[in-house]
Structure formats: C-alpha cells, structure tokens
Amino acid sequence: MPLELLRGRVTGIAERTDGLVRLEVEGRPCIAYPRLTGPVALGDDVVVNAQAVTLGLGSGGFDVLHVNLTRGLALTAEPEAHVIKLPYTSLQHAVVHAEERAGLVDGLSGLPVVCCTLHSQLVPVCAGIGRGRRIAYVQLAGGALPVSLSDAVRALKSAGRLEIGVAAGACVDGDLACVGVPSALLVCASEGYDAAVCAVGPGIVGTGSRWGHGAVAAAEAIATARALGGRPILAIRASEDDPRSRHRGISHHTETVLRLSGDVEHAWPAGRTDGPEGAVPVDTTGWQDACAELPLSHMGRGPDEDPLFFEAAFAAGRLAARNRT
Q1: What integer pLDDT is reported at residue 252 of this predicted model?
Q2: Is the Cβ–Cβ distance between 35 and 81 less than 8 Å?
Q3: What's the first-to-final CA gap in the chain, in angstroms?
C-alpha cells in the first residue's frame, strides 16, 4: 500500500512537549516531531501521513506530519553526524551515534536488563526497580519508532524514575542513538546505569498470530543481554480482564518469548499460583503505592480495571533490583 499523504494548513496547536507537538491540520488531529521535521506554527503549509487514521488503527488515531513546506525545507544534519537513521527511505537523516564515542566497555558485568513485550509495562517496571537507581530505557523496534512519542518516558523522567531514552536500531529521536541493541546496552553499562529496561515503543505491531508481533523483540534483547554478560529478566504480560482470549492469563506473546529465549529469569507476584512455569516469586506488597504518582495505562485500562497486568510488570522491576546496589 502506498503512502497516503494529504496537504493542508496547521489550524491548531494543542500541546508542545519535549520532542513532540500535538496539533491539528484542517481540524484533524496530528502529531509532529520537531527535531525531525523542524518547528511548526499556526498557518504552516504541511503534508501529513494519514494512513493510520484511514485504517482505523487503535493506537494511531492521528495523522503524522511528514514535511513542513513552510519552515522545514532548509534543515541540516547535526554537526559531525554521518550515520543514517531510516536509511534509503524518504525520512533518512544523519544522527551522531553513541558508538562513535571512545570508551565503551565490552561486557555488561551483570547489569540487570528487564525486557518488556509492551510499552505499557515500562512504568510499573521502573517503579519496581525503585527510587535512587539510575535507569536507562532502550527502545526496540516492534512498535512506534520515535522515542519522543512516549508520554510514559516523559512522565518517568519528570518523576526522577528514568534518566535517559536510547533509540536503538530503527528507532529514532531518543536522547541517544545506537546502531543496535548490543551497543545500546553497552552504552548503559559504560555510563554506570544500575539497570536497563528494553521495550518496544507505543502501539505494538500485531497480526494476531503467535509469531508475527513486535513482542519478539524482547527475545532478541534477552539473547543479547545474556551473550554480553548481563542479567536478562522478562516482564510477564498477564491479564485477568483482557477481552481477547489470547492475552487473558499469560499472554501468548509472553509464551512465544519464553519459547524463543529458553531459560530466562521471569518474576511473578508471590502468593499467586497461576504464574508461568519457572517464575521467581516476588513480594509485590505496596506496588499500588509505589506507582501512585505515575501514569498506569494499558489499552485504556488502569490498575483498578486490570491490576494483574501492572503488578506482574512491577514484580519484574523488583526482581531486577535484587542484589543490585
């Protein structure tokens, strides 16, 4: 299917946040990434990608600004950048990558690496790791590619629960860019972080099949962390309220990642007997209070509607915090 592009004028600016602008183009909701396409203002002549709205995607109820014809045609690459993100597409752009700096370590030395299958697990995992620890987020391909789309990342940073967001591989617009997951994790170890959390961006790719979904990126991250001497931990996706049978109980996404990953640590709230085989029981007492000031949301459901989803992810964070000072 070809790109579905529409031309129009910016008719409203709803919100400007770090790396993201929410706006309207001819009255249609739209988002823009100003670090990629330049600043945007009322009245600008723009071209937007409208395909997500046309297809009625649940996580894509807005257009995306493709090019700003008024003020986005004379942009230049950042100084000394020569490694390309999104190469050989119309969105290719040069970015300085962290690997270009000297001094990366060659192993993770036991660094806990929590691997999530959904972006909405990021907040409870970070809450489980706890305050006073330096946490890095590594975004994997398999959902939204721009790190700057994530409201969860902004909220965690604002609350002092997350220090940095790394755009690995095809992902873009993070605090740092890395060619792939191996170097992204090594950057985390080199910079002295206490834990890394890997997840796909918002809006996971899904086909309804056991193998064709973005969550398999977690298995790749687990294998990488293991090979580099880290301590990979899988955050279990579970639900008692998901209307889809394949995600009720232990999600088939989690079952797939466990099958691909082999023997990997995975946590489960202590006292529950319905967890996956081999899970480590973790005391999750007080998880609601630990998450109280943070945004918890999954498919429109919060901790009151689907507590198991958030508690299971919190358990993974708490397991990562064990034996790590």
Answers
A1: 73
A2: no
A3: 51
Q: Which amino acid is at 23?
A: L
Domain-wise residue ranges, the chain: 5-68, 99-321
* Residue 241 pLDDT: 66
pLDDT in tens, 103-112: 899 999 999 9
Residue-wise pLDDT tens digits, 11-36: 999 999 989 999 999 999 999 999 99
59 exposed, middle or buried (CB, 10 Å; 0-12, 13-18, 19+)? middle
From the candidate CATH numbers 2.40.50, 2.160.20, 1.20.1410, 2.60.60, the one assigned to the domain spanning 5-68: 2.40.50
Q: Is 214 helix (H, G, I), strand (E, B) or coil?
A: helix
d(CA 38, CA 76): 10
CA 260, CA 7: separation in Å to the nearest integer?
44
Range with the poorest average pLDDT among 63-72, 73-82, 159-168: 73-82
Run of H or E including 318? helix 307-321
At 171, is the secondary structure helix, strand, or coil?
coil
Report how far apart, in Å, the C-alpha atoms of 284 and of each of 232, 265, 273, 289 are. Answer: 20, 16, 14, 11
Nearest to 324 by CA among 49, 106, 66, 128: 128
CA distance 239 to 251: 8
CA dihedral 161, 166, 254, 211 (to 10 degrees): 160
Residue 325 has pLDDT above 50, yes or no: no
The confidence score (pLDDT) of residue 176 equals 96
Tokens for 53?
């709205």
Say how far apart CA 139 and CA 181 lie, in whole Å. 9
* Three-state DSSP string of 222-246: HHHHHHCCCEEEECCCEECCCCCHH
Percent of the chain with pLDDT over 70: 94
Q: What is the DSSP string of 91-143?
A: T-EEE--GGGSS---S--TT-EEEE-SSGGGHHHHHHHH-TTS-EEEEEESSS
